[in-house]
Design goal:
The protein has helices at residues 2-27, 37-47, 80-102, 108-116, 128-136, 183-193, 225-236, 246-253, 270-278, 313-342, 350-360, 367-387, 390-410, 416-429, 436-453, 455-471, and strands spanning 54-60, 68-74, 122-125, 140-144, 150-153, 199-206, 212-219, 265-267, 282-286, 292-295, 473-474, 477-478. The protein is an alpha+beta fold and 536 residues long. The chain has 3 domains: 37-153, no CATH class; 183-297, no CATH class; 313-478, no CATH class. The strands form 3 sheets. The protein has a 5-stranded antiparallel beta sheet, with helices on both faces. Strands 6-7-9-10-8 form a 5-stranded antiparallel beta sheet, with helices on both faces. Strand 1 (54-60) and strand 2 form a beta hairpin.
Amino acid sequence: MFSFLMKKAGIFLAKKQGAEGSKEKKEDKPKRLSKKLPENLSVIREIMKGSSDIIIREFYLNLDRIVEGALIMVDGLTDDRIINDNIIYPLMHDARQHLKKTGGDMDIISHIRNSLLSASQVKEETDIDEILNGFLNGDVALLVNGAAKALIISSKGWEKRAVNEPPSEAVVRGPRECFIENLRTNTALIRRKIRNPGLTFESLTVGKKTGTNVCIAYIKGVARQELIDTIKKRLTSIDTDAVLESGYIEQYIEDFPESIFATVGFTEKPDVAAAKILEGRAAIIVDGTPFVLTVPLLFVESFQSAEDYYFRPYFANMLRITRVISYAITILAPALYVAITTFHQELLPTSLLLTTASAREGIPFPAFLECLIMLMTFEILREAGVRLPRPVGQALSIVGALVVGESAVSAGIIGAPMVIVVAITALSSFVTPNEADSAAVLRLILLILGAVLGGFGIAIGLLGTLVHLSSLRSFGYPFLYPIAPFDVEDSKDAILRAPLWLMIKRPKEMSTDIKRQTINVPPTGKDIKDNKGELI
């Protein structure tokens, strides 16, 4: 019902805003450059409202001061060395000799582009909006008097963060590099992992006011074209003023925005993004954020880590089982404690029942309210620890938890068993960080059901969650795949991971090139010969 109402409201708002948007589009006319440089500069100054970071450098291209030109750039987004050595110097010195030899009957813009500039990327533009977009992205716009065309010259050079260790996806073994806020650095990090000519980056712009650059990364011949077309369609249909982070795009393109489970993945690690691209998925890189989106997303990926593939399969499988158990604990522990102590005391051994009853003696709150208070206290401490400076936040989290827990038990407000349950719940939530938000909501729902209906309510909540998960899809793919629907071949890398030499195929639902490798049977000790040349 909630999903139905949201869709109806969205259709109504889209129709209402569509009429207004069509009127605005009719009034906007394409703006073209004229052949008069002063007129073009006046238009650009008017559009930029006299902003102090816009630099307009006017100069002459020959000794007779006949050909006048202007460079337009944004202070702080360009590389001064490139502008001085590769653009201004050739235009003010070399251009004099070239123009004197060739005369004035030539196309001066084409001549400058082909004979004078030594920049890596130069393109011609006649539309003022494209020129604005060029120098607002860190390039330099060259306008020449008498020419109705401009040159957009590559000169990006703003300050950026160094590639370092990912703060949110720390690993014991594996690459220690992470994405940064620069789009081209991020594409280069992926290109370093996948040196294949089929790796394709397709760029587009999202956000009417911000003009955020977005890039789709995939391998042609491996990813399905239907997936890429769907991603492009959803990205181009985004009609909003601002896109400041990949989380904006995630909420606009996901299949089920009303669900508590995310159907779009994200990562800070280039090796994770590269591994998913190699499986036939696509990565969405957004300029200005180190978090790269990956689609489609499967539920089993929440219990997987990049280093699972760098360890031997036995230890990796043990870690995955630990993550599944931790997720079950973090959503079920408070609800089970409240349900058992309230409705099902007979399930506890006599000694444990007596210990729990004595610990709860004198507690003024029912078990449900007691649990709710402790969970809220934990969320407050965690949020405070995240927002404060790191040294202060760590001290606050540890000392605050100890002091609050011990004081609450000593004052008789909270029972000691409840502190233990909430502590285990909190620790378990950190094992699966990708599902931390859904686990927090699901934990509260199951807690309420367990307090009202006991174990029966928890069973109803789990059944409803399973039905909901089964109905979810991520860009057309079942969210519970390969468990539901079950697939034998693809289940080699679901909850448990088979050895790498046995995973010879990519997920066939996501890739057009299914074969990943041949069967690489590891060598055995029988291949080793002793000093006499005989096989051992």
